[in-house]
Amino acid sequence: MKRRAFIKQSAFAGLGLIADPGILPRKINTNSFSLEEKAVRAPHQAEDLHVLELAGPPKQRGYIYGESLREKIRAQIDVWKDKIGQNQKTNPEIYIKRFLEETNFKSAIKKWTPDLLEEVKGISEGSGLPFKEVYAFQLWDEEWWYSWYRNSGISIKERRHCTIGGAFDQVGIPPILGANMDLPGWTDGFGVLLRIKHTHSSLESYVFTVAGFLAVCGVNNKAIGLSCNTVLGLNCHSHGLPFVYIARSLLEKTKYTDAVRFLSSINHASGQNYCIGGLQEVSAYECSANKVCRYIPYPGAKVIYHTNHPLINDDQSIYEEIKRRSNASEDKAPGSSEMRLRAMEKRLKNSKIPITVDTFKEALSSRDNPKYPVCYTKPEKGKGNGQRCLIYELSDSPTLHIAPGPPCTTGFKSFRF
Q1: pLDDT digits (tens, 9 = 90+) for 4-24
Q2: Where are the domains of the chain?
Q3: Where are the beta strands (DSSP E) in 46-200?
Q4: What pLDDT digit, counting tens, does each position of 291-349 carry?
Q5: Does domain 163-416 correspond to CATH entry 3.60.60.10?
Q6: Are 46 and 385 a contacting pair, CB within 8 Å?
Q7: Which long-range contacts (CB under 8 A, 24 or more apart) does 368-372 make?
Q8: pTM of this prediction?
Q9: Alpha helices, DSSP H only, in 151-255?
């Protein structure tokens, strides 16, 4: 097999509380596959978006992923570990070891998504990296809240500023789901679009991610679209199913109802809002350790919009304790999440004109509030920008529009199945 190597191109916050014992416990075959890789460059974009085709059973797909992007994956994980070391002020190897010892996500992964664990093993083998390192790299959201418990309590800061919007039930226009996925700046230069072809199935998926990571969001050829935003204010649990495995599992569903049902059938590790789109509908679900709540902006709404604070789910004891310890005021001025939500509501609620792909491009490119814009162009200090934009048209022939950088300064590229 010919090896293809690419040229080498969280800020994890130390926030939070002392560990709660009730939440943190003490304790290929690659003979035949198809492989396609190409770079796509849009005007003014910050990075090349590598498109990689994966096929075959799970471990084989992972091996292709790991070997094809070996240098990129190694470089991305090195940057990730460096950031952990800087932010936790400790040896990242020691910190990661402790993180894995004091959590137990693997039992949930084996229960609900064993195939994806095999894919992670394949990434490890293909990239030549230790399995524990590649496994831990999948746990971004989980490490964020874990660090709250391991460090002294200080005021909570937003670390991921994702903005989501959707519309459906419009005459002559298919459901549309769009989002700015605001990843850490250290992911710049590592964006990947996976085209996954499933064995013994007609299912195909476009999955946006970064090198070595299973998934951030995406759309499949059965018109199931997914966008997500972290909701740090919701309760979490160290025995739940981590975000990345949930995201990939949702994109493997062929029916909208099955995707929605899956969210209520599992235990969630991290507070997250999942926006799921199908041929008829788009919906938002705030998921926490103890609740799954559908968010509807107003009675009869045919649109959705969401940012990074809880709007319906009251499973928030962690957030309330953080606010208490940091003397956070209940009536403080609106922050980034609130201002971005207002910007999306302004453009989507009670719209007098059809809401189209161009509507979402404009909304997700908006900069109404200079301090807290939906589209931000200023890089994090000493880092990249991290923002990418994805919009899905959920028709019988779904289309993905992606800007591999801030949509207000980056051109879009379209992908179809």
Answers
A1: 333 233 322 222 222 332 233
A2: 56-150, 163-416
A3: 49-56, 163-167, 176-182, 191-198
A4: 999 999 999 999 999 999 999 999 987 666 666 665 554 556 788 999 999 999 999 99
A5: yes
A6: yes
A7: 368/339, 368/342, 368/343, 369/339, 369/343, 371/336, 371/339, 372/335, 372/336, 372/339, 372/340
A8: 0.86
A9: 243-250
